[in-house]
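Journal club side-thread
Mid-discussion, someone asked how the predicted structure for our own chain would compare to the paper's figures. Pasting it here so we can look after the session.
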Amino acid sequence: MTYTVAIVGTGANPDNPNADGFAMAYRHARAYERLDNCRIVACADIITENAREFADVFDIPAGNVYEDYEQMLKDVEPDIVSVCVPPVVHADIVIGCARSDVVQAIHCEKPMAKTWEECREMVRVCDEHGVQLTFNHQRRFGGPFRKAKQLLDSGEIGDLQRIDVGGPNLYDYGSHLFDMCGYFTDQTPAEWVMAQIDYSEENLQFGVHNENNAIAQWRYEDGVFGTASTGDDSTMNCEMRLVGSEGTIEIGVGDGTALRMRTDGGWKTQDTNGDSIHGPKPGLVGSAVKLAGERLSFLPTDRLLPSAPSFIDRAIEDVVAALDEDRKPELAAENALQGTELIFACWESARRRGRVDLPLDIDSNPLEEMVNAGEILTAPPTAE
């Protein structure tokens, strides 16, 4: 079956030197272009010139370029919609697409949404309308992470006892890390969370507050513990650490190693099939062709050496295949919901100054509420 695809939130062309953001719509579109059973037919963006430029790049008819995504849904009735807007408006658009009753699948960027209530409501409405909802936690398809899961499942480090994660923050970057925790624990539910945060300097990313530093601990129902350390003063020397009864696996080590394991001796680097933690790495031939292309603009480097599929390419391929095969996708919304609950629970624990038992019994964004109430400093205190 061939699926028609529409993009909401094109953003600016990444080839434009004045563009900001990560051009996620362009990455999604290139992933759909790789698939024989997908055809990009429409796009929408509140900045019309961005939508028009996107349409030019991906050969979308001028009549299928919209400012209003709801009008696009009525006119075009796409099978699949990729939502690439900032997270503060994820819920409104995802719910609107689901309630249109013309969309079969929605693939949304991460993090899920601005509040815990919005996260749950997106999943509920899509379930109610029979819409496949996925979130773009593409690291599940990366070589270092899949190899680590293979090593863990085969018992190379014994029984999993603890997962440690470290990164810039709990929410924006951390959504990937918490999602991977779910991946490595086979989506085992967590029982409780305990955390503390620092927010001494304003840190807004795509309209959502992110703490400056955090320390967190949580426990899964099977007894496995998790810890997180975020910010410039993170205690981690890697992005993820799997601690087992007989060894340790580290992913994204500070020295550039993608994956290493230690059991009864020193660290041993593991084969990740050419992938770093962020995507496929070009080999010697690929690097040479890329360099030649930069120096000789007329050289058709994409035909000389087609690029390996990115993690997003692989993720969207599974999203479409799951729809086609009527099965649960690897990036299913309930998986994202489980990881996101830990994020909001960390902030709620900091607000309560104590342990938070799960499931989480709030609807709001605790960090935003603390900032708005003046309970957290948003600037360093002035010395008198």
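Post-session note: The CA atoms of residues 219 and 271 lie 30 Å apart.
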